[in-house]
Amino acid sequence: MAFGKKTVRDAEVRGKRVLVRADLNAPLKQADGEIVVADDARIAASVPTIQLLRENGARVVVCSHLGRPKDREPDLSLAPVAERLGELLGVDVPLAPGLVGPEVEQLVDGLGEGDVLLLENSRYEAGETKNDPALAEQLGRLADVYVNDAFGAAHRAHATTEGVTRYVSEAVAGLLLEREVSTLRSIVEHPEHPLVVVLGGAKVSDKVAVIDSFLKVADAILIGGAMCFSFFTAQGHSTGDSLVEEAGIELARKALADAEQAGCKLMLPVDLVLGREFSADTETAQLDGVDVPDGWMGLDVGPKTAEAYAAEVMGAKTAFWNGPMGAFELAPFAAGTKRVARAFAEAPGVTVVGGGDSAAAIAEFGYADDVTHLSTGGGAALELIEGKELPGVEALDDA
Fold first, then answer.
1. CA 27 vs CA 52, 66, 158, 382: distances in Å
2. N or C: which end of the chain has fewer CB within 10 A?
3. CB 340 within 8 A of CB 306
4. How far is 302 from 92, CA to CA, in rounded Å?
5. 127-165: per-residue pLDDT in tens?
6. pLDDT tens-digit readout, 64-74
């Protein structure tokens, strides 16, 4: 399908100042007394667009947020990110002292063709998340062309994702943003069948709009994670001490009815892994069935369910996954999520993982390079699939 917006390939950038909104929100860690990047996946995902701009003679200015600073906490500076970005690009990437201001403008003016400058954490500025027009105008003064390549932030109308587009002569999509939007839209709009959707996580309310979207097109929807207990409650099963979202029970009941009417197979777990409490060293038990006794909580799908779900994924022409099958961060309850991750890695069809915890899980299990598309945006991916417009995409110039 046509992307519908101009991309970085359409822009004439030689000699021009190009402001790239990237998603460099990478996890950091302490190592030998220094703060360094713990996982560079998001930084690496931004490299193709930046490299293309460099090769075409642009003077590249990159901006991003990092974390949720309340003030200007030094441990949320983009300094470690600038260093890692420079290593990946093979050039020196200096860090500006701020996002905007006279000193930043001077550094931008001093850039040569192919040079790259990283601006300091955009959320150090209170006006970023408020989409402050004054901040957006200052950002616009730094650029002749604006490129949004931050899919993970495209569902937010912030100064660096939406507001700035009003103050530049050209606003286009980066390579990553284009690929993310095109891939995710295609799953809902014209997937190859059978389409199998795996949804997990804690709350039905977080996924109900996604379920509604897929009920119209999917051949099977497989439910895991704590959200399955809202479905079990709706069916009259006992859930013990499992996490049950009360608001999700009626939503689950409606989804079951809608799935039957739509002719979409909605699968629920048939066995569970139980724990006494949410802890890695708690007492555990296998339950062949789904009626959880008092004093126990369901913390993972069981082996029968994991194998059944894996078989569905392996037989799909298109498979989409968002949300873990259980508390995969705790070793005794990771097997279900790991089995689904392996199925996505080995499946012969198109496999798409929709960011968030699913992306973290598939990376942790070593399968990140084995799926067709691993989204960099959890919330943005879900909103796109729900059919919502993303402000950071809608603000770009039409093709």
1. 25, 9, 21, 22
2. N
3. yes
4. 50
5. 999 999 999 999 999 999 999 999 999 999 999 999 999
6. 999 999 989 99
